[in-house]
């Protein structure tokens, strides 16, 4: 999904056909940069985990050095994330530095620290997108997820400011125990305030300390799939994939037999709050972007692309793979082995296949799940 | 159009050997918004107009930067003017006087 987003941006904002060489040559044009582990929320599912409280922020001088390195290495799309970037007292200077260098900047945030002063900055130096997480549709739900009593009010205040100033923003829901009943209301909020599509995810990952704590909040696979069918933009893409399979088009075969079927290392890099660069947010194998050579670090990503699936690998030849989002790096952090496949991932992919390819109704899907997987 | 300078809100970016002009004050929300590319000649023109610069000096810069043997000087001047007029129309270059 992330790479599709980058490809869309390349197509949308650049005119020359030559940019297709970037895709062919797997040039890095997009970076996700965690400029802080700190956040004003204490979300139960957050993958930063305890580092929110204990990890140190890189100093401003290192942040600027990293932005310069990304600039020199052809990064055009730069996304600031965290933690929450707005918790940094020097974020204004960081943001303006990146903007004035000519990056197309996006910000991942919970929106609760967006002030009128920030709106003035955005009006003069607009971000490409403010990408905002939504955790519920009331203060009660926000408190369950984020630990903050008036989180929803602060969120609404933040997005109202953006809406009034016509700053482009999108809402992205995180579906979990505690807010699962309000997905429809979250989508309504998105439609009311934002002109962008509402997206959401219900897959939680182990945190940076490799504890399973976030997973306790994961919704039941059936609940996740049924909601995905009903709400948000994912369903459009899933329906298209189902139709492609029914029409005999199965483009996903191209990496069958390989361990990584994703676009790891293709167009993007991820820099974490320690200044360590990897191919994606999940990957724990990284190089120091300040001390090591950028291209040398990128070369280390090749091994993921070239990794052949081991004998007996469950995913090889799997007919549900088109609907599968199972990530080898996430599995490596969870189980210590990237080839171990999580049953939940298989169930989710199978349920989607049954709905979009075998045309089971939602009731039939429930019956199938209850018979085969309900414990 | 005797003296021109580039708009300070426009930044030249080298993205994997392609030169792009990025408007740092543009929200790129409009479907028509995109990021134009410059070729090598465009890049030389762009770099020569950081400060208010006489049009004749821009033409001289182009002439000294490339092998122009066999090309009429007036044709080069005409092409440069046409190109700069386009950049002015796009708001990327300012006509100082």
Please summarize what this structure is.
Chain A has 375 residues and is of the alpha/beta class.
Give the arrangement of secondary structure elements.
The complex is a heterodimer of chains A (375) and B (97).
Chain A: H1 2-13, H2 19-25, E1 30-34, H3 51-54, H4 60-72, E2 77-81, H5 91-101, E3 104-109, H6 116-124, E4 129-134, H7 139-146, H8 151-164, E5 169-174, H9 183-193, E6 199-201, H10 221-230, H11 234-246, E7 268-271, E8 276-278, E9 287-288, H12 294-300, H13 302-306, H14 328-335, H15 343-356, H16 362-372
Parallel strand pairs in A: 1-2, 1-7, 2-3, 3-4, 4-5, 5-6
Antiparallel strand pairs in A: 7-8, 8-9
Helix pairs in contact in A: 4-5, 10-15
Chain B: E1 3-6, E2 10-15, E3 18-23, E4 37-38, H1 40-48, E5 53-54, H2 55-65, H3 73-89, E6 93-95
Antiparallel strand pairs in B: 1-5, 1-6, 2-3, 3-4
Strand content of chain A: 5-15%
Spatial separation of the terminal alpha carbons of chain B: 6 Å
Q: Quote the CATH topology of chain A.
A: TIM Barrel
CATH level-two architecture of chain A: Alpha-Beta Barrel
Counting DSSP H or I runs of 4 or more residues, the number of helices of chain B is 3
Q: State the oligomer.
A: heterodimer
Query: Cα distance, first to last residue of chain A?
Result: 31 Å
Number of strands of chain A: 9
Task: Give the second-level CATH assignment, the architecture of chain B.
Answer: Alpha-Beta Complex
Overall shape of chain A: it is: globular
**Sheet bearing the most strands of chain A, described?**
9 strands, mixed
Widest beta sheet: strand line-up of chain A: 6-5-4-3-2-1-7-8-9
Helix proportion range of chain B: 25-40%
Element order, helices and strands of chain A? HHEHHEHEHEHHEHEHHEEEHHHHH
Low-confidence stretches of chain A: none
Q: What's the domain count of chain B?
A: 1
The residue fraction in helices of chain A comes out at 40-55%
What does this structure look like?
The complex is a heterodimer of chains A (375) and B (97). With 375 residues, chain A is an alpha/beta fold. Chain A has one domain (2-252, 262-309): TIM Barrel. Chain A has helices at 2-13, 19-25, 51-54, 60-72, 91-101, 116-124, 139-146, 151-164, 183-193, 221-230, 234-246, 294-300, 302-306, 328-335, 343-356, 362-372, and strands at residues 30-34, 77-81, 104-109, 129-134, 169-174, 199-201, 268-271, 276-278, 287-288. By secondary structure, chain B is of the alpha+beta class. Chain B is 38% helix and 24% strand. Chain B has helices at residues 40-48, 55-65, 73-89; strands at 3-6, 10-15, 18-23, 37-38, 53-54, 93-95. In chain B, helix 2 crosses helix 3 (73-89). The longest helix of chain B is centred in the C-terminal third of the chain and has 17 residues, at 73-89. The N and C termini of chain B lie close together (6 Å). The model of chain B has no long low-confidence stretch (mean pLDDT 90). Classes of the chains: A alpha/beta (375), B alpha+beta (97).
């Amino acid at each position: 999904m992330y790479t599709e987003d980058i490809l869309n941006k390349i197509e949308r904002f650049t005119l020359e056909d030559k940019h297709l060489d970037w895709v062919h040559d797997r040039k890095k044009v997009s970076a996700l940069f965690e400029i802080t582990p700190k956040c004003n929320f204490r979300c139960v599912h957050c993958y930063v985990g305890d580092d929110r409280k204990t990890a140190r922020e890189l100093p401003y001088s290192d942040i600027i050095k990293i932005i310069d390195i990304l600039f020199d290495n052809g990064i055009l799309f730069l996304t600031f994330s965290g933690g929450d970037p707005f918790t940094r007292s020097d974020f204004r200077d960081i943001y303006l530095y990146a903007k004035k260098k000519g990056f197309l900047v996006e910000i991942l945030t919970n929106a609760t620290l967006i002030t009128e002063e920030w709106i003035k900055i955005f009006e003069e130096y607009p971000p490409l997108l403010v990408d905002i997480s939504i955790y519920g549709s009331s203060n009660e739900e926000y408190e369950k997820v984020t630990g903050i009593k008036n989180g929803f009010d602060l969120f609404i205040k933040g997005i109202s400011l953006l809406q009034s100033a016509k700053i482009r923003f999108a809402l992205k829901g995180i579906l979990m125990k505690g807010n699962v009943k309000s997905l429809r209301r979250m989508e309504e909020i998105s439609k009311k305030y934002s002109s962008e599509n509402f997206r959401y995810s219900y897959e939680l990952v182990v945190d940076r300390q490799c504890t399973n704590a976030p997973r306790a909040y994961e919704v039941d696979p059936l609940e996740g799939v049924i909601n995905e069918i009903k709400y948000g933009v994912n369903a459009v893409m899933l329906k298209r994939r189902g139709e492609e399979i029914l029409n005999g088009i199965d483009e996903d075969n191209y990496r069958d037999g390989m361990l990584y079927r994703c676009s790891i290392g293709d167009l993007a890099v991820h820099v974490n709050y320690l200044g360590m660069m990897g191919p994606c947010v999940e990957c724990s194998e990284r190089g120091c972007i300040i001390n090591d050579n950028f291209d040398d670090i990128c070369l280390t990503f090749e091994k993921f692309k070239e990794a052949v699936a081991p004998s007996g690998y469950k995913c090889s030849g799997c007919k549900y793979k088109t609907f599968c989002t199972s990530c080898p790096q996430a599995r490596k952090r969870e189980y210590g082995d990237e080839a171990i496949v999580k049953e939940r991932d298989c169930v989710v992919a199978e349920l989607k296949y049954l709905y979009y390819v075998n045309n089971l109704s939602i009731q039939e899907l429930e019956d199938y799940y209850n018979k085969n997987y309900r414990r | 159009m005797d003296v021109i300078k580039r708009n300070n809100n426009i930044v030249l970016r080298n993205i994997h050997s392609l030169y792009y002009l990025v408007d740092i004050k543009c929200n790129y929300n409009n479907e028509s918004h995109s990021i134009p590319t410059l070729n090598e000649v465009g890049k030389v023109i762009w770099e020569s107009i950081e400060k208010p610069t006489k049009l004749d000096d821009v033409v001289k810069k182009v002439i000294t930067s490339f092998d122009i043997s066999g090309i009429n000087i007036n044709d080069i001047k005409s092409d440069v003017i046409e190109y700069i007029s386009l950049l002015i129309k796009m708001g990327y270059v300012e006509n100082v006087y």
